[in-house]
Amino acid sequence: MEFNHVHKSKKRVDVYEKVTGRAKYGADMRFPDMLYAQTLYTKYPYAEIKNIDLDKAKKQTDVEAIITAEDVPNNKFGVIIENQQVLAEDKSLFIGDGIAVVAAKTAKAAARALELIDVEYKELEGIYDPLKARKERSQLIHEENESNQVIHHPLRKGNIKQGFLESDVIIKREYDTPFIEQSYIEPEAVVAVPYQENSTITVYGSIQNPFATQGAVASVLKEKLNKIRIVQNHMGGSFGGKDEVVSSMAARAAILALKTKKPVRLVNTRDQSIKESYKRHPYKMKYKIGATHDGQLKAMQIEAVADSGAYACQTPFVTWRSVVQATGPYEVANVKTDTYGFYTNNIYTGAMRGYGSPQVIFAQESLMDELAEELDMDPVELRLKNIYHNNSITASGQKLDSHQVSLEEVLIKAVEKSDFIEKYNRYKKEQTGDKKRGIGLSISFRGCSLGAEAIDAAGIILSLKKDGSVNLYSGLAENGQGLKTVYCQIAGEILGLDIDRINFMEVDTLISPDSGSTVASRATLIGGNAVKKAANNLKNRIKKFIAESYEQTEDDIVLKDGKIYGKKSIEIMSIAKMSSMAAMEGVCLTSYGWYVSPEISWDEEIGQGNPYFTYVYGCQVAEVEVDIKTGEINVLKMTAAHDVGRAINPANVKGQIYGGVMMGLGYGIMEELKTNQGYIQNTNFDEYLIPTVKDMPDIDPIIVENPDPDGPFGAKSIGEPTLELGAAAIANAVANAADKRIRSLPINLEQIIVGRKLSKGGGQK
Amino acid sequence: MQKVKVSLTVNRKKYNLEVDPDERLLDSLRDRLHLTGVKEGCSIGECGACTVIIDGKAVNSCMVYTFQIDGSHVLTVEGLEIDGRLDPLQLSFIEHQAVQCGFCTPGMLMSAKALLNKNPNPDKEAIKTAIEGNLCRCTGYQQIIEAIEAVVKKDGSE
Amino acid sequence: MIEFEALKPQNLKEALAVLKERGIDIKLLAGGTDLLVEINNNSDRLGNFKYLMDISSIKGLDEIENEKKHLIIGALCTHTQIIESKLIEGNFPILVRGAKTIGSTQIRNRGTIGGNISNGSPAADLITPLLALKSSVILKSKNKKRELPLQDFITGPYKTDRKEDEILTKIKIPKINSDYQSSFQKVKRRQAVAISRINLAVVTDIKEKRFNDIRIAFGSATPTAIRFLKMEKKLKQTQINELNFDSIVEQTGQEMVEIAGERWSTPYKKPVVGNLLIRALQEIIREVQ
Q1: Domains of chain B: which residue ranges?
Q2: Residues 449..508 of A with a Cβ closer than 8 Å to C: which?
Q3: Strand, coil or helix: what is A387?
Q4: What's the CATH code, domain B4-79?
Q5: Which of A1, A418, B52, C110 has the fewest CB atoms nearer than 10 Å to its CB?
Q6: Nearest-CA distance from C15 to chain A in Å?
Q7: Nearest of B128, A623, A732 to residue C191 by alpha carbon
Q8: Could you report the per-residue pLDDT of C65-88, keeping only the tens digit for each?
Q9: What is the pLDDT of residues A217-269, one digit of tens each?
Q10: CB-CB: which of B4, B43, B63 is closest to C6?
Q11: What is the reported pTM?
Q12: Distance from CA of C185 to the nearest CA of B (A)
């Protein structure tokens, strides 16, 4: 199928501002009389706040206001469970809880004032291990609850006992993953401006989900939604991380702005960001798998325990995705999966690219290789024997019959391109020298969009101006992933316009349709469909107008290259001319597109149903070199095959693959938030390591396209699939190289040499 | 704190400033001269988002106090464009999809610019060394390297 | 909050005069790549100071003097200058190797050899090679000049013997003849911009197939970077073809523990220091053969 605008690597629409330094991010915003705010954080992770003395601080020069929990109209918010404190009230529950926020004329004055605030604490003994928090009669993190359990998702299929009885080989393994920091290069930033136009408060900033933040601010301020306006600036990356933490910051800044009647800027330093913003959930996982001698999987029993930290945040949904996907993309007749989230006094955890999948994929793909070894099969063989195909039934009982199940395709393509079989067998043999090479693979299936988490709908407004130019209003936001460009391409394809005629407007809750959050790799799939609807609505109106005015039949009319063509492909007029004429005739040139995802179903009690309406499939192969004398790992090559349905913008898809592979590499070998008794030990990039350009392997992206009947032009998702596979592929490659099976991330120097992680342990920072 | 008088040339314009001793070049550029293209990512010289060129050398502006560089010439991302014409590096970044969220982009461009000013014909390893101190979380670096290599090739063929 | 006044002496003489009067309240600033991080982090190591004296623009302190028996490197020489210096590459390539692994290009353009030494980090990538090269430092005060071995200048982790009225001005390295080989090893957690997990500098000459004047310095393995004198003694006069790898690994680890005691990182560092030494020796042997 030939396209003019989609399926083309069009240049991104927002690049010009970004390469010239003109693009304004949250911290670049300036307003007259703007005040600088800074948060005083708790000294202890878990402590009673006995007294806060603001007297000295208030008297400090240039200080205009200081707020504490007392000044917050409604101090608890949360999308799923409303227990996240904006500011610590009776107790601090984790090290990033704020006690007070100062607004002053200069940043320095605010910093000085913070030093003058006297807080009296009663340090308490907290719980820092979810397995401890789980025990009956352990102390309650949230006293209003009956236990520290945030959520439990069960999944039952078939008969697990029977399944193990039918197995010839049974293995049990435990895997664990750490707290991970999203590490967007731009720290969180908001500016709250009071009484702009008709809004009580307008908050500008680095806000991933403007509508979620709008809801949070309205709820905290006890204000109506139509009085709270959120405007998303250019965002310096988010990866899921600028949701609740930014909502909390927005609320704090808003309260100060209303109190001082001046704009208030609240921007985190990197240290503050790492200390207070939520992380990826650490998981402790127990897997038991049974198979026949010839490799057919019979039974899987899985338990995954997530550390929710101090607040519920997104834990119920993150662990839900895990329960759906924990077995991996394999046909298993008997499955018993339980995923849990427990409160602790650690830093709270929430959304991060992948959202409950990277953890279980690390476990399940490592496990498959371990099983293959037990069965004396190679990793490809075992997987081919068990992977889903069209009409397979998943662990949750869903029949995969609505789209092309391309697991075999991505697996074979990646395996062939990377020379996997030959290398795997070669590297398995004795290698001379200190540097051992290895190759490993991992595969996944991923449910697209929100599934059973929430109503899945999005809206788009297209406004064709009298001169033929277009404004596009979207509720879903650009995080840097290229959403603006893709939407313009889709609209452009349908309306026959080049993307530089389409102006994608900043997400502004004033006008943009509430489309839920820009998460779950749903923007192209759901939002893109909304763009399609809006564009088609507009196109149909244009066709009707032309047909009536120029004696044409609607079916003959084509919009292409900025022009309108009719019978016998004769050019009628330019779209620009048509727009002015249509406007004069009273034709409505603004159209709305609202798309609701196909139905899904989920039975909470037994974990059965059709949790997602479509899936994507991916396979990554990692080739590594392990220095067995120092423990250093060099990832030489990553081959990544991803079925995206259709690549609306192939260069963008490649960009997502490169970026996702690097994030997966970081997860695999170097990233780890080190915590000790609730304190965070590495609060900046000197000690929380993310990959540099020199850590980049040779990356070979393979874009696979099996157009999805429900996707716009067949497109579905790419954002998260690219990152969730890397760590597992690397773990398998390390096992192939050095005969060391590491079941805990990151696979660092000490784990290779000593066989376990080493830590300073004991004491506070 | 007693202010210090400093004279700087920034993006080819001369400025006479009075700065606090602990005012970093980053702060002077962003807050006094409104050059917000220079970004703050970590404050400790690890991420490179604040990279500018001082007297021909790429430097983290968060690691320099302005009072230290009296008389110096500073180039920021805003100074790459001359009379409305984008620098070949800027054009190449656009062409090669080397920009996603864009936050690391100004720093990347300055590191690349400093490299090409010093060594017009760097190999891939030299390019990587020039930007090893510029962290990017979005792009995975590949397209950034391609963008810089393309400028090198273009210059070479002319 | 850390507050200070700025001092910017025009020349060394002025700087030393001010230090004589108020040295106790003054912190020296050169490249800033360590100090500004400490100030940002409100580090305990800073102590109290009233003035920050910037010496980075003092002329003449970044020169490299080529004397007959020594190379003398100005303390303000940046890591980039070291990397690009033909004199240093020709005489002490190990110093270039070490400098190349420090930070990033931006850091190397500002960071100085004097700063790397004065910061006194056990992981400093120039200190280890300088120790193996038997370097000494020259300190100047208003009326005095003194020279002392680098090993004596570093008195503890992040501690030096610099007196409050002194400035470290030069690093003096005795030249070595062409019989000498060197090897620099660095273990890191990622490929760039990484602090040494362990680093090692070996400088030696080989006479009649035996290690002769062998110097072995480890960084990041003990409280300060230090030469492993026992291993030097053991390997001196050892035949290069008769190395007992297992015993070298064991004894190197043992010497580390003797110096540093058992720490949480010992299970990792103990085998690895020995592994690195073997690697360095093998590299040197390959060069010679």
Answers
A1: 4-79, 88-157
A2: none
A3: strand
A4: 3.10.20.30
A5: A1
A6: 30
A7: B128
A8: 999 999 999 999 999 999 999 999
A9: 999 999 999 999 999 999 999 999 999 999 999 999 999 999 999 999 999 99
A10: B4
A11: 0.97
A12: 19
